[in-house]
Design a protein that fits this description.
Blueprint lengths: L1 E2 L7 H11 L3 E5 L5 H18 L2 E5 L2 H6 L4 E4 L6 H8 L4 E6 L2 H10 L3 E4 L15 H9 L6 E4 L7 H6 L4 E3 L2 H4 L4 H25 L1
Parallel strand pairs: 1-2, 2-3, 3-4, 4-5, 5-6, 6-7, 7-8
Length: 208
């Protein structure tokens, strides 16, 4: 996730480094900038993502996501309801939403979300997202909904293996990559950790 408040380089530089490392799913979040600034940055990032074959989502703003032809929008619980965001984006774009309980996850699926973010899995200082859910929370949610579940909150190289083993379809990472001395190297290491677990799981399935 490209969080404007944590970036030490431009959003474009951070995205380019992560793309080179193999990241293919980006979300731009800017909680404090003007809507015009969010639009202009999102427009540049959407173009870079398209040129690189990556998916690009705008955080919070469905109208801006539509305006820059992003691949989708990621909503919070206090943002525009999913059904109205769908009206702005149409059926070909993707809509995700952050959830922090089983009830919110179920409601998101019923409302037509394409995926959910669930957490916080671990303690995080990036945002106040309520009670820590732990890896057991991921397993519970995966048993509850049929749409993809992206783990959010406090994901690091040290715990990402446990998160994927618990059933997460992916992870949303901010500080562990953006605060690293080398964004590209941090992203590459994180991807390798995930791929290693997935390879282990595939071998286990093949041998079952």
């Amino acid at each position: 996730m490209l969080d404007q408040d944590l970036l030490r380089v431009t959003p474009e530089q951070a995205m380019a480094a992560a793309i080179a490392a193999g990241v293919r799913f980006f979300q731009y979040r800017n909680k404090n900038g003007s809507r015009r600034a969010v639009y202009e940055t999102s427009l540049r990032l959407a173009l870079l993502a398209k040129m690189s074959g990556a998916l690009f989502f705008v955080n919070d703003h469905a109208d801006i996501a539509a305006a820059v032809d992003a691949d989708g929008v990621h909503l919070g619980q206090d943002d525009l309801p999913i059904e109205h965001a769908r009206g702005l984006l149409g059926t070909k774009k993707l809509i995700g939403i952050s959830t922090h309980s089983r009830e919110q996850a179920v409601a998101a699926e019923i409302s037509g979300a394409d995926y959910i973010g669930f957490g916080p899995i671990f303690t995080t200082t990036t945002k106040d997202a309520g009670q820590v859910q732990g890896c057991a929370g991921i397993t519970l949610i995966k048993q509850t909904v049929s749409i993809p579940v992206i783990a959010i909150g406090g994901i690091t190289q040290g715990n990402v293996r446990d998160v994927i083993k618990a059933g997460a379809d992916g992870v949303a990472v901010i500080s562990a990559i953006l605060s690293a001395p080398d964004i590209g190297r941090a992203a590459e290491t994180m991807i390798k950790c995930i791929e290693h677990v997935e390879a282990e799981q595939k071998r286990g399935t093949d041998n079952a």
